[in-house]
């Protein structure tokens, strides 16, 4: 298999995850970042279930969870009423991660960067992209500036360099959307009493919500609050008196002891007009930005990366490389569009200044929450449904050009384009689960009990074959390297498997 050269510009969570996935799939990867060191405050605080699932084959999830709070307690402060909520197992049986996971972005980045180093791919810091040239059939020529100026050629270049992406601007891809009339304040702070560090705190105010997480990067607490646009600039610091004013409005009954770090974050929603220009691609915040509602940003970016990484590594080997590469935008751009739409609605409810939003936050929620919150949490079906949306478990690619539907095996009724659920199965070694079987990089083929062998199609360990002894039939399910079902057939002897493996560059 040809080993393509991939340059990743940007070493945030998206760029690091993309480099890991492309490397695991056979690409030669280089990662650069213009920042001279890795230290920067976390923008994101949550890692959702689907993100953990797609990272699992890369061998990093156990290290990530060492830094995570997997059963956070949240204290809701509702205009004088306090509701304490324990968010533990959310009764979603088909994932190994049925819980909300608090994990600051900086700690996630450190784990992903260390994993890259262990694979011989260090992040080159203090190196920035000065320019590039790209043509449909030619390698991308990148001009790099750091200790010196160099020009090098790559088969593919991926911009994971944030909302103000140099890569996106260099290839003249449009950036469509608008600005919110709200802004976000973030700060790492120490508090003088009043709140316990064994719980997160969420408070309603007339200006929006105030969040306090006991997971600051530079101090005990991370404050996240919304307010009306102040006219300040991105990155402006926030005065201790302004922070105190937010805490007072939230009714938290505590005083600011120290502000270790703070910044102003103007809010906007944007979507790149395209995710690809010839051999240049965009991922993460370089391709889409939206409100922080629901903690979707880092998660959507990492899932972009896992989707794209294996396709770059395999494109040269695919029957139709352009179909494989184009599938990235066709699959992931609609996800960003849908995410922006629903986070806009949630952000309005959280922080809107108009009378309906303010009424919900300051009157209806404080009155109803003491009764409704415990009832909702005890309604397992309702919490599971909400969790599936929040955790991105419902993302699917039903119309993907990489999907082949040749009939549904009755004993394994799964749909093409959907994520592989973590169901219990029996194999030769005993009882296990589907996502344990597929927790290695590459393509996975799940043979039903009576299916013929497919050894003639397996040339190396990039294709893993598993026989399910408790699922009768002659068919199979084929799973992509990003954990989505690409093929189902009632007859493993069908020529569709060979066709699909060729379509996805596996053979």
Describe this structure in words.
This protein has 507 residues and is α/β, with parallel strands linked by helices. The chain has 3 domains: 5-58 and 104-174 and 273-350, FAD/NAD(P)-binding domain (3-Layer(bba) Sandwich), CATH 3.50.50.60; 177-268, Alpha-Beta Plaits; 404-503, Glutaredoxin, CATH 3.40.30.120. Helix content is 30%, strand content 28%. It is built from 12 helices and 24 strands. The strands form 5 sheets. The protein has an 8-stranded mixed beta sheet, with helices on one face. A 6-stranded mixed beta sheet has the order 5-2-1-9-16-15. A 5-stranded mixed beta sheet has the order 18-24-23-21-22, covered by helices on one side. A hairpin with a 3-residue loop joins β7 and β8. α1 (13-24) packs parallel to α4, α7 packs antiparallel against α8 and α8 crosses α9 (355-378). The chain is globular, with a radius of gyration of 24 Å. It starts with a strand and ends with a helix. The relative contact order is 0.14. The mean pLDDT is 91.
Give a short overview.
30% of the residues lie in helices and 28% in strands. The protein is of the alpha/beta class and 507 residues long. The radius of gyration is 24 Å and the shape is globular.
